[in-house]
Every structure is written in structure tokens, then in C-alpha cells.
Design a protein that fits this description.
The chain is of the alpha+beta class. The protein contains three helices and five strands; from the N terminus they run αβββαβαβ. Strands 1, 2, 3, 4 and 5 form a five-stranded mixed β-sheet that branches. It is elongated.
Length: about 140
């Protein structure tokens, strides 16, 4: 009889630890890491570029939403925190964004975009001090 009393709490504790372990393992698989950046065309032929931003989001959410949020953030950030003005006079969009499957991959695309705009005669403005996070 005493052995059963001692075994019942022990088995209960084992089950609890098992559920906690499985729960934590499942939670880790429910997120993904995304890497993206954004640009904005500024007046006087300048291009604002963010660093590559890394966010951990729900596995079922899209990184496209994070990119769109970063573009919206730039529209507010640039006039409020810098002396630059976004140029809305062009035929295309004033902001754009890109992404990659890794930080290095996203940075490669970012550098290609910077080079393209430099070749077109744009001055590059690096927005290294943005404080953005994608909350999904």
C-alpha cells in the first residue's frame, strides 16, 4: 500500500514534466524568423535604406505584413526623426521593401538595391537607428 502512495505522486510529476516538455517543443515549432528591409525615395534624389530587420513571427503569419508595417513605419519615422522628406511625386510607390531567407540573403538583396540606386545617381541615406519590431 505504501508503495502505491509513493508511486502515484511520482507518476503524476512525470506526466506533468512530459506535458511541459511537449508543450515547449510544440511552441518552438509554431514560430519562424523572417528577414527584411525597406527603402523610401526621398526628395533631392536620395534613397533611405533600413538595415535588415529580423523578426520572429507566428508560423502562419506572412512576412509580407511585416514588410508593409516597416514601410508604414518609415512614412512616419522619416519626417519626424530626420530632416529628409519623402518624395511622393514619382509614378511609382515612395516606399518599397525586400526580404531574404536568411540575414545574409536579405542583406545581399539590400546591397543590390543600393547599388542599383547609386548607379542611377541617388545618394544613399542609411537609417541605422530605427526602432522597429513586427508584432504578429
Amino acid at each position: 500500500m505504501k508503495t502505491k502512495i509513493l508511486q502515484t505522486p511520482f507518476v503524476t510529476v512525470l506526466f506533468l514534466f512530459g506535458f511541459l516538455f511537449i508543450g515547449n517543443f510544440t511552441k518552438a515549432q509554431e514560430t519562424k524568423t523572417v528577414y527584411y528591409y525597406a527603402t523610401a525615395i526621398l526628395k533631392n534624389k536620395k534613397l533611405a535604406v533600413t538595415p535588415v530587420v529580423t523578426s520572429v513571427i507566428d508560423r502562419y503569419n506572412s512576412a509580407v505584413a511585416c514588410k508593409a508595417d516597416l514601410e508604414s513605419y518609415l512614412i512616419d519615422y522619416i519626417p519626424a526623426e530626420t530632416s529628409y522628406k519623402i518624395d511622393y511625386s514619382g509614378s511609382g510607390r515612395a516606399t518599397s521593401s525586400g526580404m531574404g531567407s536568411s540575414h545574409a540573403d536579405a542583406n545581399k538583396y539590400r546591397m543590390q538595391e543600393i547599388k542599383r540606386y547609386k548607379d542611377w545617381g541617388y545618394e544613399i541615406v542609411h537609417l541605422n537607428y530605427i526602432s522597429f519590431s513586427c508584432d504578429q
